[in-house]
Amino acid sequence: MRIGVMFDTEQPFEEMVGQVVALSAAGIQMAWSSQIFAYDALTALAAIGREVPDIDLGTAVVPTYPRHPVMLAGQALTVQAATGGRLTLGIGLSHQMVIENVFGQSFEKPARHMREYLSILVPLLEGEQVSFAGETLSASTFGPLQIDAPAPLVLVAALGSTMLGIAGRMASGTVTWMTGPSTVESHIIPTIRAAAAEAGRPEPRIGVGLPVCVTDDAGAARAKAAEVFAIYGQLPSYRAMLDREGAGGPADVAIVGTESEVVAQIRQLADIGTTDFCGAPFGTAEQIKASIAAMASTVGI
């Protein structure tokens, strides 16, 4: 299982670079960036990757609606060229309230949107010319994109059965967030693996993203998690996964405890078939440092 850390994108750029330098020095294998309302994730990864050569890079995730797939393909391949092919491209729908209220776009039939999006994006990344006309997306390129870089793997943020099916059939896997181990084991992994097998594709990558805090006071850490990650208990897609897990909120699926307890919980994810762990350390500066060290100690499990 690859061990990665979600780094903080809401800080000055030089500090963000320094954080990824520290992750690499600690032995973390992958630095993941979200795309919310801070730095552009892919631009940041291209710049950071030039300065930090010994760590893989990933997005978790870039929303699809604001970027046409031809543009995203060009941007992702540019990152690949800049970083020597170290990018894993995580993409996702985002949420209805964001797409409709912030971007003013329709969120109707999101599964159709993702199928059409991948029908354009993946062939372009793989060096093909594209001619595709869907109901909401179309593209007709003059030829392959003129970027000398390998195609990044594409992971689709997928939680429901329909989206997991699309990810399994059309992409290289999935990356989840705020989804507990029982749900990953009983729902996420078997659903996407079945879809990939049915399509004759390789076994998919399974990324799991969860908050992490090494602490001697688990109760206080979970209270902090409930505060910091409260919004994720209210968004419908995450709420559905928390309900499936039997969790009251994000605090209940956060990986919290002493170093040995945190390591054991990460090992559990590897044991059930997770291929990529994306930890989001939280708490005090000391707790965040300890959490990163604990995650680094699990490299190779």
Explain the overall architecture.
This protein is α/β, with parallel strands linked by helices and 301 residues long. The chain has a domain at 1-156: Luciferase-like domain (TIM Barrel, Alpha-Beta Barrel), CATH 3.20.20. Helix content is 46%, strand content 18%. The protein contains 11 helices and 12 strands. The strands form 2 sheets. Strands 1-2-3-5-8-9-10-12 form an 8-stranded parallel beta barrel, surrounded by 8 helices. The relative contact order is 0.13.
Protein traits:
single chain, 301 residues, alpha/beta, TIM Barrel, 8-stranded parallel beta barrel, two-stranded antiparallel ribbon, 46% helix, globular
Layout of SSEs?
Blueprint: E1 2-6, H1 13-26, E2 30-33, H2 41-51, E3 56-59, E4 62-63, H3 69-83, E5 87-92, H4 96-101, H5 110-125, E6 131-133, E7 138-140, E8 153-156, H6 161-170, E9 173-177, H7 181-198, E10 205-214, H8 218-228, H9 236-245, E11 255-257, H10 259-272, E12 276-281, H11 285-296
Parallel strand pairs: 1-2, 1-12, 2-3, 3-5, 4-5, 5-8, 8-9, 9-10, 10-11, 10-12
Antiparallel strand pairs: 6-7
